[in-house]
Known about the structure:
This protein folds into 4 domains: 5-154, 3-Layer(aba) Sandwich (Alpha-D-Glucose-1,6-Bisphosphate, Chain A, domain 3), CATH 3.40.120; 166-252, Alpha-D-Glucose-1,6-Bisphosphate, subunit A, domain 3 (Alpha-D-Glucose-1,6-Bisphosphate, Chain A, domain 3, 3-Layer(aba) Sandwich), CATH 3.40.120.10; 256-362, 3-Layer(aba) Sandwich (Alpha-D-Glucose-1,6-Bisphosphate, Chain A, domain 3); 370-443, TATA-Binding Protein, CATH 3.30.310. Helix content is 37%, strand content 21%. It has helices spanning 20-34, 53-65, 79-88, 121-132, 154-165, 187-194, 221-230, 257-270, 287-294, 307-317, 340-354, 358-362, 386-399, 425-443, and strands at residues 5-6, 9-13, 42-47, 70-76, 93-97, 106-112, 148-150, 174-178, 198-202, 234-238, 245-248, 254-255, 278-282, 299-303, 321-323, 329-331, 370-376, 404-409, 415-421.
Amino acid sequence: MGKLFGTDGVRGEANTELSALLALKLGSAAAYVLRKKHEGAKMLIGRDPRISGDILESAMAAGICALGVDVHLTDVLPTPAAAFLTQLIHADAGIVISASHNPMADNGIKFFGPDGYKLLDEIEAEIEQQVDNFAALPRPRGNAVGRMYRAHDLVDTYMEHVRRVFHHRLEGMTIALDCANGAVYEVAPELFSELGARTTVINDRPDGTNINQKCGSLYPQALQKLVVDAGAQMGLAFDGDGDRAILIDERGNVVDGDHVMAMCALDMAEKGRLAGNLVVSTVMSNIGLELTLARQGIALIRTQVGDRYVSDEMRRTGAILGGEKSGHLIFGEHSTTGDGMITASQVLSIMLESGKSLSELAAQMKESPQILINVPVREMDWDQVPDIAKAVKTGDDRLSGRGRVFVRASGTERLIRVMAEGPDLAELREITEDICAAVRKTLG
Length: 444
């Protein structure tokens, strides 16, 4: 990756690492690289509700208009809606200002091409090059500069798209929602209520500072209790920008992305709808997913971490289902990127058509014991440290043939993620703690 772009766009602490000046330069660079050579070039910008969004949105829009490209500003908008609408209005690019699940003080800028897919590495590299070349970029004059248009009504078009994907009514069902004080705070409660469900909602009062604050997909505990107390058939915990959802079953248990991929793949395969009998996930998915699919003749292809890599592999292989354990699920027939509400609609369809509860569907996959520990670090190059490499090899040798060890640097935060899977939880604890100790000693 380049010096600016990580696994999901450009991220950093807002107003320091990710400053208004950098956003201005990124806007101009993106306009220069991505605009088509035609009249009426335009880009779309959506954002989550965090307080720094106004600053970065204004700077990005100014940078784009300064290159002669119009900007459609949708205000607060889920990431998958931006991807969908970029295609719909034939924009040259879509931009989302969000740090997804990160704390409020962070923010990010991610880009979609005119086809609604995230940009290729080489295009990101070209944008970075033009950021460095900012002073030399062309400046149109007079009426050739771009204009800004307020376009929040486009969110209704996205909502209609999600409603078309779902062919059922939800009368008689109770659904609990945790909106993470993020981008879905309006659209998610509205959608499920319109479909006839009784909804009970928490964390739908964003004030710019409370996004992801002990809530949403990373903190499902309050939603787990709410599901049980409300007698709900399902709980949905979104992240800050709405491209992922963690599900809660009627018993209050977490149903992560691996279990959702399993139940959806098995249902699609049974109906003859799973193209190529393929599912794409990342190296972080539990080995239990692989074994569950294999028993039904479904192949699992793994990629590096990041839903953009899942999406790229899906396009390469023709797969129509893929995602991450974290809850980013891509249903290629309906979306170009992860979409928490479409994920929920697909699972609800299976529940209604099969007559099975969410816990019954989730039980189709048996998860192997897995431990994942995030270690804060000052440097990210863990694979250049002999002590860490030795600890990883020792763990691999212990689990040979029975499990696996996987270590990687986070693409969005200063963390080293240490994971181990295998049949014995106590053994996994020993292995991960040994590796984490080596990371803390050398990089912490």
